[in-house]
Amino acid sequence: MSNEEMKTDVLVVGTLCYDVIGSVDGTLPKNSITARLGHVRYEDGGRGANVAVYAALAGSSASIAARVGRDFRDSDYWDRLNRIGVSTASLYHQKDTLTPRTFIYSDPNDMVLYFYPAFENLSHQDAYIRHTADVVGSLEHEAIYVSSELTQANLVALESSQAALKVFGPAHDAGRHSPAELAAALSAAHWFIVNTVELKQVCELLDRSPGAIVRDFGLEVLVATRGAEGVDLIYPLDATHLAAYGPRLVADPTGAGDAFAGTLIARYLSSGELVRSAQLAASVASFVVEQIGCQVSLPPMADIAARAGQPWEASVEIN
What residues form DSSP beta bridges with 107? Predict the structure, then answer.
């Protein structure tokens, strides 16, 4: 690595994959009933990559430690990440497998996800965990966002990182962690970002209320995203509720939470103001749901700031 590649603002440990996104005409099927898809799109995705992209768009330098396969190095996705400003130097290349895939199907009220991790055997998992430890130890970073589908990779990253800000965002893999694994990850983190479904799972697994989770594991804040109902910032002794910003329409919720997290972290690093950063991040998320796919396009950042009622200084945009 060059000297520049040895340092980044935000290091993301998580997934990078190709998304297959479909919307159902009507409602998602149950009991083996066939449903018609209104559209199918193939997009660049993965929640780790989504977070890194939006951190970069919000003005931070970003790097991602994710697994990719033999089909990634010469892809348009690789080129676009580097153009946006997301370093690909910390990726782990598995030359004998494909890049992971996520299959996402939704109706206006619900979503189901299927993840193909592209692990051929346990040696691949062990190698990626060692790679994660090496990256976290060698790449200087101000903040780390951890969201791998491998619980051990999450623990290694959070416990070994020396970042001033350590964020745990397990997303839909929250329920795959055992209570002991969740407790260890939360104890090593400063922030915990989840949506309402994930928060309910975690509260049940740990047998604690959201406030007790913050207090018992020494978190600075638990950030609970609630879709159209806004965002809750839960501190050890109190909480702040932030209203949502209404999109013009809801086309696809895929990746909105990732966009929120990436923007939140980057803006907080630059301003130190959590509430204002969360407001701007919520505005970004409201634009994301207006389109199909998370990394497709965004309006000018001035429009995003206007919706949130805040000034915006970054000039990078997705094409």
Answer: 110
Give me the residue label for tokens 């949130």.
Answer: 308
Which residue type occupies 119? F
Cβ(284)–Cβ(75) below 8 Å: no
- Give the whole-angstrom CA distance, residue 218 versus residue 27: 41
Q: How far is CA 12 from the centre of its chain?
A: 8
Residue 75, judged by CB atoms within 10 A of its CB (0-12, 13-18, 19+), counts as middle
The pLDDT tens digits of the residues spanning 145-188 come to 999 989 999 999 999 999 999 999 998 888 889 999 999 999 99
pTM for the model stands at 0.89
The C-alpha atoms of residue 189 and residue 155 are separated, in whole angstroms, by 10
CA dist 180 and 155 (Å) reads 11
| Cα distances (Å, whole numbers) of residue 302 to 52, 185, 269, 280, 292 | 20, 36, 20, 11, 21
pLDDT tens-digit profile of 66-83?
A: 999 999 988 999 999 999
